[in-house]
Amino acid sequence: MSDMAPIHAAPMMDTLCPMHLMLNDTGHIVHMGPAFDKILGGKSVIGLRFLELFELKRPSINQTMEALLGLATAKLHLQLRAAPRTEMKGVLVPIPENTGVGPSGGAVINLSFGISVVDAVHDFSLTSADFAVTDLAIEMLYLVEAKSAAMEASRKLNQRLQGAKIAAEEQAFTDTLTGLKNRRAMDYILNRLIASETDFVLMNLDLDYFKTVNDTLGHAAGDYVLQNVARIMVEETRSNDTIIRTGGDEFVLIFAELRSTEATAELACRLIDRLEQPMRFQGQPCRISGSIGATLSSFYAKPTQERMMEDADTALYAAKHAGRGQHRLHDPTATKPARP
């Protein structure tokens, strides 16, 4: 094996080609560029044969230094034999005799990562200092970083836009006074339930004597009553039920997957009982009640929103005609009563 004394040209080569290896005439490594400290995890490979460190994938040759020198200036496709078996590209230049650059009969091999540079930077924690200043890999790294930064900024912007869209849609479907859903939401929910052929109950609820509260105590008292009515209905229903303020003192309640007329009647009674409990606004009692009309989607071969709303409305005015504070279930055979 040839002499492995320090190479006079090493400092210059380390600056120009941080990722190079210098071989002697037997193919053993006598010097390595500083970038290999990271690539090899701080392990010195001085004295190791080059072809023991790397697998030459292309071109295919026998495992001798003479054969390796025959590939001078050709593009070498290499792979580290140890994990993570990173692929690299290289070019070999023989060292002329009596130049003092390195061992006579030896060679310098300059290496790079090619398209695997992004993975290599991650695997070996490389920085720009581990590459030659003129290496285009640096430009590629900057582009990758810029692209990553741009994609992250785009992702965050999309999240904000999506959040704003959801908030806008929620606001568009919400009654600002009570926090309940509004008529626009009702149309969407009813159409969805009917299209999915899900059984549900549609209930119309009107407040009784609400006009009296407004006329005697003012609109602030009326708003207070509406907000308390909303709270009561939320408390008396399930989380997947929908409560809608359609306007003024009129409400629609939608109960998905509710099929029982008995359960519907029980729910209506409970709501009316809660609404008849006196509310106080600035020390003054606010007395109201509720009239309810309901219908079930199972009553119809092909339910439509318009037909169900009309039938629930008919049942509601039958309840009002019966004396208010009442509930009625739609009966297709009943005569529609005159509205009070």
Total DSSP E strands? 13
Spell out the CATH superfamily of the largest domain.
Reverse transcriptase/Diguanylate cyclase domain
- Give the overall form: rod-shaped
CATH C-level class of the largest domain: Alpha Beta
Give a quick account of the main beta sheet: strands, pairing sense, barrel closure: 6 strands, antiparallel
Give the N-to-C terminal Cα separation: 114 Å
Low-confidence stretches: 1-6
What string gives the helices and strands in order? HEEHHEHEEEHHHEHHEEHEEEHE
What's the number of structural domains? 2
Helix content: 40-55%
Structural class: alpha+beta
Can you tell me about this structure?
- The structure is a single chain.
- This protein has 340 residues and is of the alpha+beta class.
- It folds into 2 domains: 10-134, Beta-Lactamase (2-Layer Sandwich); 183-329, Alpha-Beta Plaits, CATH 3.30.70.
- Helix content is 40%, strand content 21%.
- The chain has 11 helices and 13 strands.
- The strands form 3 sheets. It has a 6-stranded antiparallel β-sheet with strand order 2-1-6-5-4-3.
- β8 (242-247) and β9 form a beta hairpin.
